[in-house]
Specification:
Substrate binds at residue 146. By secondary structure, the chain is of the alpha+beta class. Helix content is 31%, strand content 12%.
Length: 632
């Protein structure tokens, strides 16, 4: 039934089940100098100094956890991909399992492009089967009871494939993007335009109604579809017609209580305070949209106000959060009324709470200001009691105080995960509300992905924007209409990549930007290197006697020990081009964090500013790589 204009007290049924969706893959340290300065002089520490010292210690703890956990998270995600992943024996090629757990709970759910498989949700002929949330790992339909349909599935698949297809086009593979990827995407976009306005199950697979996450994912998918279609010379008229109506409906989830009611058109006795809303904000993050409220961008007044209400809902219900200050980071779960496994914090949701704040910090730094409104004031005052409405430019004391308070808050959420992660770095689905013991599905792909994306945002690595200047992204019509367009669906017939566009044992010899002749590249087999000599160049003005060095998260870079930092050469340094250079051999396939330091003539060390820099050493044919930076 159509729901865009149905009152929120509509009674519909709901189904309780376990979750399986797989969604969305930083390090920052403040080295504030000697924290013993006042104590040495025999003076009492000021409250501000104590806060800064505590902040420094917290960020060092988080840095250490990030450096240890990042390679584990990446490895464990790869382990869950069939057919050769270490946890995915017998899983179909290209399928990504939610968790290798076969007990507690008993499920291995496949995620793949299974559009043609008829299933309990329906078939491809009318598109209904595209919203089936679960398949067996041999590509066959799962026919057991489940929360279906889940209408976010086609939208998320379209967005994921469009992201990859954009890379194909940008690297000279437009023919593959058009012939292989577009037919799959076209089905999913047709589904979204036709069925967006009907109820379905939320991302937790429990509530049948209108889900904030699903509606936002649907809007983004159609904007993505409109942009991508134009990029490859196609069209998506349904995308252009329906996207504004979905965005219009999305505004109705904002409640009078100053937060996002994550599920409407359902009467399930819940408050609507749900991680669904925070996951939506970070999933649809586009730095180019700034703090746009219509799309609930992470730094928007609505998203920040909602973040506070959501987090506060868990402060008093978990024993783990006892004694935590009112403005401090805490363990958070799905929603306060949760009873699954007795209702516990989830790793992925605690990380999502941090990620939204890292997103906001990135945008504030880029735009050079923080705006506090009456809607977001409570969020800021909880972290900085002197906060008041207004716009504060970077460089001002208020901007610095607000920024530091939010950064410290974000670090606290990551530190919670560090505290309750398994000793071997494994991230399960949940951790016990009383003692922090990992619970439920082990090695949850979504938990690892949530860690990796939070770490990336912490390092200032952000996703490519999806709005791309398209007015469909933020234009809210004056009135909402429950409009839909019936789509046409057909099986994708080209389902394998051409051999010359599929790196097998090798990689493409070159990367070619698309030209008017649509040039493509060929692949040449080679021996993948196990170590790469990385040439670093950094621009830094120095004085005579000073030396620039590099230090980082792995032994080859000193493991953050400045006495083991790698010295650079000033042989190419000139007054007009003050560069320092050096080469370090690093293990291929490794993700690292690093910073540059200046060692002064007296042996003291000056660190460049936050955030830490991030670099993944590609495992490829090449034994060399280069990196060019400017001192920050």
């Amino acid at each position: 039934m159509d729901i865009a204009q149905i009152p929120t007290n509509l009674l519909v049924s709901n189904s309780t089940s376990i979750i399986h969706p797989i969604m969305h893959a930083l390090s920052s340290v403040l080295l504030l100098g000697s924290c013993a300065f006042q104590a040495v002089l025999g003076r009492p520490e000021s409250d501000l100094f104590k806060a800064r010292r505590q902040t420094e210690l917290l960020r060092r703890d988080v840095d250490s956890f990030v450096a240890t956990e990042e390679p584990i998270a990446l490895e464990q995600i790869l382990c869950n991909i069939g057919p050769s992943g270490c946890h995915a024996s017998g899983v179909g090629s290209g399928l990504l399992i939610a968790s290798p757990s076969r007990s507690d709970p008993d499920y291995i759910a496949g995620q793949a492009r299974l559009q043609t498989v008829s299933n309990p949700s329906g078939s491809l002929s009318d598109g209904t089967g595209l919203a089936e949330p679960k398949y067996n790992t041999d590509f066959s339909a799962f026919t057991g009871a489940w929360g279906r349909p889940q209408r976010d599935g086609p939208a998320l698949r379209a967005t994921t494939l469009i992201t990859y297809a954009n890379w194909l086009v940008d690297n000279g593979y437009e023919s593959t993007a058009t012939s292989v990827v577009w037919p799959i995407v076209r089905n999913d976009l047709a589904y979204v335009a036709q069925y967006w306005n009907q109820t379905g199950f939320d991302l937790w697979e429990e509530v049948q109604g209108s889900s904030f996450f699903t509606i936002a994912a649907s809007h983004r998918a159609l904007v993505d579809g409109s942009n991508f279609a134009a990029k490859i010379g196609q069209s998506c008229t349904a995308c252009d017609a329906i996207a504004p109506q979905i965005l219009c409906f999305q505004q109705s989830f904002w409640s009078s209580g100053g937060y996002i009611n994550s599920n409407i058109n359902v009467n399930n006795g819940r408050s609507g305070k749900d991680a669904n809303s925070v996951l939506t904000s970070i999933s649809n993050f586009d730095p180019s949209l700034g703090c746009d409220s219509a799309t609930f961008q992470p730094c928007s007044e609505r998203a920040l106000a909602n973040h506070k209400v959501y987090v506060d809902a868990f402060r008093s219900i978990y024993t783990l959060n006892s004694g935590k200050p009112s403005g401090g980071a805490v363990a958070v779960g799905r929603y306060p009324e949760d009873s699954y496994y007795n209702g516990n914090p989830w790793y992925l949701n605690t990380l999502a709470a941090a990620e939204q704040l890292y997103d906001a910090l990135y945008v504030w730094e880029q735009q050079g200001s923080i705006t506090v409104t009456s809607t977001s004031l409570a969020f800021f005052k909880a972290l900085y009691s002197s906060a008041a409405t207004g716009t504060y430019a970077s460089g001002s004391s208020t901007y610095t105080a607000l920024r530091d308070a939010v950064l410290n808050y974000a670090e606290g959420f990551v530190n919670n995960v560090a505290t309750y992660a398994a000793s071997n770095g494994s991230l399960a689905e949940q951790y016990d509300r009383n003692n922090g013991t990992p619970l439920s599905a082990r090695d949850l792909t979504w938990s690892y992905a949530a860690f990796l994306t939070a770490v990336a945002r912490r390092s200032g690595v952000v996703p490519e924007g999806w709005a791309q200047g398209n007015k469909l992204a933020t234009s809210v019509p004056g009135g909402c209409a429950a409009t839909s367009i019936v789509g046409s669906y057909s099986a994708a017939t080209a389902t394998s990549f051409p051999a010359n566009q599929t790196p097998g044992t090798g990689v493409p010899t070159t990367t070619v930007k698309p030209t008017t002749t649509r040039a493509t590249t060929t692949a040449t087999a080679c021996a993948t290197q196990t170590a790469v000599s990385v040439s670093f160049t950094v621009r830094k003005v120095t004085n005579f006697g000073q030396t620039v060095k590099i230090v980082g998260s792995i032994p080859a870079l000193g493991s953050w020990d400045t006495s083991k930092a790698v010295a650079f050469s000033a042989s190419s340094y000139t007054s007009s081009n003050p560069i320092w250079t050096g080469s370090v051999t690093l293990p291929a396939g490794t993700a690292i964090q690093y910073k540059y330091i200046v060692v002064n003539t007296d042996g003291s060390v000056t660190w460049e500013a936050d955030p830490n820099r991030s670099l993944t050493i590609a495992a490829s044919c090449s034994s060399t790589s280069s990196r060019s930076d400017t001192w920050q």
